Amino acid sequence: MNRLKDMSESAAWHLMIAAALEGARQQGYVLKKQPGRGLSNTYQLTRNGKTQTASVRTTRDRWVAFPPLDDGKRWKTLDDVDLVLVAAVDDRLNPQNVDVYLFPANEVRKRFDASYAARIENGHTVRNNYGMWVMLDKGDDAVISQVGHGIAETYPRIANFSIDELEGAVSKDVRRLADGSAPETDEAGSVVQTGPSLSTVAEVLAFARERIAALTGMPADAIKVDLKMGV
């Protein structure tokens, strides 16, 4: 049973943001929303007199995304931070817990660079300003879409929260920070998970092919998605 599906998209997103922030707080960081960053969910994390910026990501399938820019020479948001703070469910189909990870941004960039290069070399299509996913857990380098995998093996989780207990485990200050965050929404008002905002049928179909490629290891160009609409 996927308990997060019982919540609204907004409630589930805020719950996972709160988990990420609480995990960092329990590691001794003082948290502050970075001013002037709008909806990018970038925070200042301060500990032992050192302040760093962190991009907060949530994932319900244990893949994370950042959009490439300038044909992979830059990464949106990722290039502007020192850390990547991730809240990830423990199981895609039956999530019971939320794992929190804190990664050095330069290590995340190395993995995204490797994934981008492997995809381009093997004829995959990777669009600028369109989320590209990399797998947190250990995968298979022989599967092109999984290149860059395994950062969660190198940097183990810093916190783990039961979904049942999470609301009570979050401090009031962290809850206010999380509640003050606003996820990007589509025209229907639904939360857009990490990745692009899709505004055309062609973009939705391309997005579906990329996600199927990531899950199966097949090249996106070899995947055909048929759309049937009826009344």
Secondary structure elements and their pairing?
Layout: H1 9-26, E1 30-33, E2 42-47, E3 50-59, E4 63-66, E5 68-69, E6 74-75, E7 83-89, E8 97-104, H2 105-121, E9 132-135, H3 151-154, E10 159-162, H4 163-169, H5 172-179, H6 201-216
Parallel strand pairs: 3-7
Antiparallel strand pairs: 1-2, 2-3, 4-9, 5-6, 7-8, 8-10
Concise summary:
The protein has 231 residues and is an alpha+beta fold. The chain is 30% helix and 22% strand.
Question: In what range is the share of β-strand residues?
Answer: 15-25%
Counting DSSP E segments of at least 2 residues, the number of strands comes to 10
What ranges have pLDDT less than 50 throughout 5 or more consecutive residues? 184-199
Strands side by side in the biggest sheet: 1-2-3-7-8-10
Total helical elements:
6
Radius of gyration: 18 Å
The helix content, as a percent range, equals: 25-40%
Q: How far apart are the termini?
A: 31 Å
Mean pLDDT: 82
Q: What class, by secondary structure content?
A: alpha+beta
Question: Mind summarizing the main beta sheet?
Answer: 6 strands, mixed
Domain count: 1
User: What overall geometry do the principal axes of the alpha carbons give?
Assistant: globular
Order of SSEs, N→C?
Answer: HEEEEEEEEHEHEHHH
